[in-house]
Amino acid sequence: MRALALYGAATLGSLVLTALAAAPTGAAGGPGGSPEARGVALAAQRASDSGTSFGPCPESEQLPEAVRCATVKVPLDYAKPGGRQIGLTVSRLKAGGKDPKTKKPVARQGALVYNPGGPGASSMYFPLVSGMPEWRNIAAAYDLVGYSPRGVARSAPLSCADPEDFGQAPTQAPVHPSESYKKERIARAKTYAKGCARKAGDALRHYHSLNNARDLEVLRAALGEPKLTFMGASYGTYFGALYAALHPSHVRRMVFDSAVNPDPAQIWYRNNLDQSAAFERRWEDFRTWVAKHDTTYGLGDTPEAVQHSYAKVRAELAHRPAGGRVGPGQLQAAYLQAGYYDDVWAMRATALSEYLKGNPKPLVDQAAPRPEAARDNENGTAVYTAVECNDAPWPGDWRTWDRDNTRLAKRAPFETWDNAWMNLPCAYWTQPRQRPVDVRVAKGALPPTLILAAERDAATPYRGALELQKRLPGAALVTEEDAGTHGIGGGANACVNKHLETYLLTGATPVRRAVCAPHREPNPVSLDGRALPLRGIPAAV
Questions:
Q1: Choosing from 122, 130, 234, 309, which is the catalytic residue?
Q2: pLDDT tens digits, one per residue of 142-201
Q3: Using an 8 Å Cβ cutoff, are 276 and 419 in contact?
Q4: Dist CA 296 CA 529 (whole Å)
Q5: Quick one: which H or E segment has residue 331?
Q6: How far is CA 486 from CA 135, 325, 475, 522, in A?
Q7: Identified catalytic residue from 404, 457, 499, 519
Q8: Calpha distance 10→270 (Å, rounded)
Q9: Could you tell me which residues come within 8 angstroms of residue 430 by beta carbon, excluding any fewer than 6 positions away?
Q10: Is 219 exposed, middle or buried, given 0-12, 13-18 or 19+ CB atoms closer than 10 A?
Q11: DSSP line for 372-387
């Protein structure tokens, strides 16, 4: 899904399985289960018996001493649970705090496991949210647990290319690519897919969403939790939904923040097309806001005028990269973030404004690739590619990609082709294709769950939240109206946060659906840091 995640960095299945609704004995490893299902049960029992020993975190994690780390072993191939094991790195901050009213210690409710999405993102940082007021009460009741999924960071890391080659800049990013440019990108996609196969070998086929859900079951057991309390954002909602379908009796509470559309027909080719269309709407939201603050930025007083300013910068960078490192490709990547998070709008608008005034430094600071991040970025892209390509069938004929994206780019030019290039290696993938699991749970088989969604989210369009709610009976949906930030739990909306906290602390959800007014619009800030009066929407309460 190419999602960026809650604080930092948005897939599916293995085998031709249909998630058994009421009591998935086979999926959990009962007598009628597949070899993989029996492997899950065996690995979970093994993890439960051995437990998990937490100690100091490696310096590379840059976590405070109060946060402790561990490694949880899971089978690379669940059909062979006695074979090669890989280690998932895990971080934990123990629950602790007092009730602000009674001043008595808060009763511990277990571990809250968090995944920020991707695929390819780590949540090792998650325990750090304990210091934020939005999470304080939750951190008092729960151990906050983050981890790196298989393939990510130190968890049996995947790589498909040399990080130095991967991070080359500047690059082009034509909105309407020529035939010669398309041929160049096809060649690059083929090379990248071959690089994944060469570097990972036979292990590559085991990096997919169903194995991420299986790993979550082993992690639950390793933490000593009889039932799982889990919060997933973006892609994390997808394999969280897989877990809920496969292990409903092992679910305690589950939050789906910015939900991926789990319809098997959407995984993943069509979901990415829908995402590109949604980014066009969100890009217009950004330009509308910039136009509203034309006295601050001078980029135009209509969305069309702001687009003209952006196109002018893009054209200049194509001929003369800013700082020698920022071309149209780096510009696109930086401004794509404005489609995810409106808290970067002021920074991005300032960078455009200053560039057109002859000062490229803010743009270079925000858009130039950082050499120190090259390895992590390459690793994250490798995991993203492996999971999405392994998860489902993709069109293998370039003509299908060309037709669909050419058509879409006529009405949604902002992100369409860049999204296509990101996923094109899947057209030339050499690993076995999976069939997406049909995520469904029988009525009464799953405890109440909570879905959070912003109405104008581009990375995971709102329709996905509605589809997920249909497939998980008893799920409640909280919608932030007329807002588009991706990953809203614990963020800027007090109304959303109240529903999240109430659910995690008490299990109570709205009857079926609840609506929150949007959070405040960003405050335009000039380059010298002086805030200007807000002309926006009142904060939600």
A1: 234
A2: 999 999 999 999 999 999 999 988 889 999 999 999 999 999 999 999 999 999 999 999
A3: yes
A4: 12
A5: helix 328-340
A6: 18, 28, 20, 15
A7: 457
A8: 14
A9: 193, 194, 197
A10: buried
A11: GGHHHHHHHHHHHHHH
Q: What residues contact 165, with CB distance under 8 A and at least 6 apart?
A: none
Q: Are 216 and 228 in contact (CB under 8 A)?
A: yes
Question: Closest by alpha carbon to 489, among 465, 525, 466?
Answer: 465
Contacts 24+ apart (CB under 8 A), 348-354: 348/286, 349/290, 349/293, 349/296, 349/297, 349/299, 349/524, 350/297, 350/525, 350/526, 350/527, 352/297, 352/299, 352/309, 352/310, 352/313, 353/296, 353/297, 353/298, 353/299, 353/527, 354/527
- Residue located via tokens 């370039």: 398
Radius of gyration of the chain (CA): 23
pLDDT at 31: 33
Separation of alpha carbons 151 and 122, rounded Å: 10
DSSP 65-121: TTSEEEEEEEESSTTSTTS-EEEEEEEEE----B-TTT-SBPPP-EEEEEE--TTT-
Amino acid at 169: A
Per residue in 406-437, pLDDT (tens digit) is 999 999 999 999 999 999 999 999 999 889 99
Residue in 277, 280, 299 with CA at minimum distance from that of residue 289: 299
Token duo for residue 284? 């217009």
457 is catalytic: yes
Residues near 265 by beta carbon (within 8 Å), at least 6 away in sequence: none
What pLDDT score does 131 carry?
A: 94
Q: Find all residues with CB under 8 Å of 406, minimum gap 6, and list them.
A: none
> Given this model, what pLDDT does residue 98 score?
81
How many other CB atoms are there within 10 angstroms of residue 180's CB atom?
Answer: 7
The first and second tokens of residue 118, run together, are: 């991707």
Of the residues 208, 250, 486, 519, only one is catalytic, namely 486
Say if residue 354 is exposed, middle or buried (CB neighbours under 10 Å; 0-12, 13-18, 19+): middle
- pLDDT on residue 101: 77
Note the pTM of the prediction, 2 decimals. Answer: 0.92
**Residue ranges in the chain whose pLDDT is less than 70:** 1-32, 526-541
Give me the sheet containing 513-516, strands edge to edge.
55-56, 68-75, 85-93, 142-147, 110-115, 228-233, 251-257, 450-454, 476-480, 513-516
Answer yes or no: are the C-beta atoms of 439 and 464 closer than 8 Å: no
